[in-house]
């Protein structure tokens, strides 16, 4: 019998498992600069945390009046990002420990991310997380990105799990909203501390307002075991 019974865990990737937001920011800054939009700031980038790459660049087109197509912008941004992701991506240590604990206990896990499949694969391979996280869903594979529930529901389908038996680990408000819409419980670890009071996070079963500084593998495991006992 598995330690957590029928529970499965679905991880967001960027800002949750790995500190990739600096890479996404730099890739976005380089892309916009190439299309005549200089001085894209980190504060501006933060509004896109948790939003898929395709939806991000579609908003850029509207905001900045870009003539390039969404497909072209996605390709350019992904090219910049992959160059950075392969060598500069850091795994949050307690998240790695949590993933390893889940693997040791035989708990089914998946990654459901707004990133492209190529970006997800590069990060998981480059960090060694692919040894444990083999079920992967990109927002590019479903009709709608977060805050729609599509990526999480597809992850549950691939795991053969009931959505009600899935726990999502998320850092962004759109992801927390997507988990709630999917009928899944959520461990929320806000990447942007100032967003901890966002209404989307109020639906989380466990909200760690201090983000990664507060998250520990042991506390997350204990919460999961208590959740499994409650059924």
Automatic annotation (TrEMBL):
It comes from the Bacteria. InterPro entries: HAD-like_sf, HAD-SF_hydro_IA, HAD_sf, PGP-like_dom2. Transmembrane segments: none annotated. PANTHER family: 2-DEOXYGLUCOSE-6-PHOSPHATE PHOSPHATASE 2 (PTHR18901), PSEUDOURIDINE-5'-PHOSPHATASE (PTHR18901:SF38). This is HAD family phosphatase. It comes from Streptomyces lusitanus. The lineage of its organism: Bacteria, Bacillati, Actinomycetota, Actinomycetes, Kitasatosporales.
């Amino acid at each position: 019998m598995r330690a957590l019974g029928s529970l499965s865990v679905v991880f967001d990737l960027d800002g949750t498992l790995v500190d990739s937001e600096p890479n996404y920011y730099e890739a976005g800054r380089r892309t916009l600069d190439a299309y005549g939009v200089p001085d894209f700031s980190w504060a501006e980038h933060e509004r896109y945390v948790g939003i898929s790459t395709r939806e991000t660049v579609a908003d850029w087109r509207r905001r900045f009046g870009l003539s390039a197509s969404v497909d072209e912008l996605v390709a350019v941004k992904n090219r910049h990002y992959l160059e950075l992701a392969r060598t500069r991506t850091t795994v949050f240590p307690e998240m790695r420990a949590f993933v390893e604990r889940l693997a040791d206990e035989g708990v089914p896990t998946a990654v459901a991310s707004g990133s492209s499949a190529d970006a997800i694969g590069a990060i998981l391979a480059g960090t060694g997380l692919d040894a444990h996280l083999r079920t992967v869903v990109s927002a590019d594979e479903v009709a709608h990105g977060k805050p729609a529930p599509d990526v999480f529901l597809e992850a549950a389908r691939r795991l053969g799990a009931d959505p009600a038996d899935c726990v999502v680990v998320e850092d962004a408000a759109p992801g927390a909203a997507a988990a709630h819409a999917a009928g899944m419980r959520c461990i929320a670890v806000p990447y942007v501390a100032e967003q901890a009071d966002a209404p989307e996070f109020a639906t989380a079963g466990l909200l760690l307002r201090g983000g990664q500084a507060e998250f520990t593998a042991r506390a997350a495991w204990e919460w999961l075991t208590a959740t499994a006992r409650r059924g």
